UniProtKB/TrEMBL annotation:
Pfam families: Gcw_chp. It comes from Oceanococcus atlanticus. It comes from the Bacteria. The lineage of its organism: Bacteria, Pseudomonadati, Pseudomonadota, Gammaproteobacteria, Chromatiales. This is Uncharacterized protein.
């Protein structure tokens, strides 16, 4: 869905990529199986810039737990055929311990048709050098009908240090997470996620049902410069 046209017509200058956007309303913000909005509804949105094989963007959401306030993610990467390489910084500006809560991930992924697989490496997470981790991510998205898609997700987190929490001290041990999501062309979606790990507490292991509405805005701005 285009919200705005380019400020310059094709041929008037050199294109330096396009900007797109997204907004999502969800009954809860769930990150890799872990509830992250304090059991409250979440509103998130982002902007993405793409130029040939290079991209960068930002994404924001309200969060809860010890990183109360907002989460701001900054990311950039490059694609090469079906491969994807990049980095993500997770920031919590409203947290009183923002410097300790920040997280940097490096990632490599492969996308082919309905399948995708990624490896994420967390570098000096939460400001503690012994808390690096690896997250393995696998996804399958397939059309069920002309208007409905089914997405399956599996993930596994491997912690190198003794603790790692993304702002929650109960999120500590190696664990497996899985989810199922059904999306409609209108933007409505419903998903179920769960964590499988013996030491996870506070009910995080129980399946969590999440519903929401997503909007995407493709090519809302075309960056054209007259050189």
């Amino acid at each position: 869905m285009a919200l705005a046209s380019s400020m310059a017509h094709a041929g008037e200058g050199k294109s330096f990529g396009t900007v797109s956007g997204n907004i999502d309303f969800a009954s809860e913000y769930v990150f890799r199986g872990l509830p992250s909005s304090g059991n409250s509804a979440a509103v998130s949105g982002g902007l993405d810039w793409n130029y040939n094989s290079v991209y960068a963007g930002t994404w924001m959401s309200n969060v809860g737990n010890d990183t109360s306030g907002n989460e701001v993610d900054l990311y950039a990467g490059i694609t090469a055929g079906d491969f994807d390489f990049g980095a993500i910084a997770y920031l919590y500006p409203a947290s009183p311990t923002m410097r300790e809560d920040k997280i940097l991930e490096l990632y490599a992924g492969y996308n082919k048709g309905m399948l995708s697989g990624y490896v994420y490496y967390g570098v000096n997470s939460a400001g503690r050098a012994d808390d690096d981790y690896i997250y393995l991510d696998a996804n399958l998205t397939a059309p069920v009908s002309d208007t409905i898609d089914l997405s399956l997700h599996m993930g596994y987190t491997i912690f190198h240090g003794k603790t790692y929490d993304f702002g929650n001290p109960d999120y500590m041990d190696d664990m497996f997470d899985a989810g199922v999501k059904i999306s409609h062309a209108s933007g409505l979606w419903v998903g179920v996620t769960s964590i499988f790990e013996s030491n996870t507490v506070r009910g995080y292991k129980r399946p969590r049902v999440n519903i929401g509405y997503s909007m995407t805005f493709d090519d809302i701005y075309d960056i054209v410069l007259n050189l």
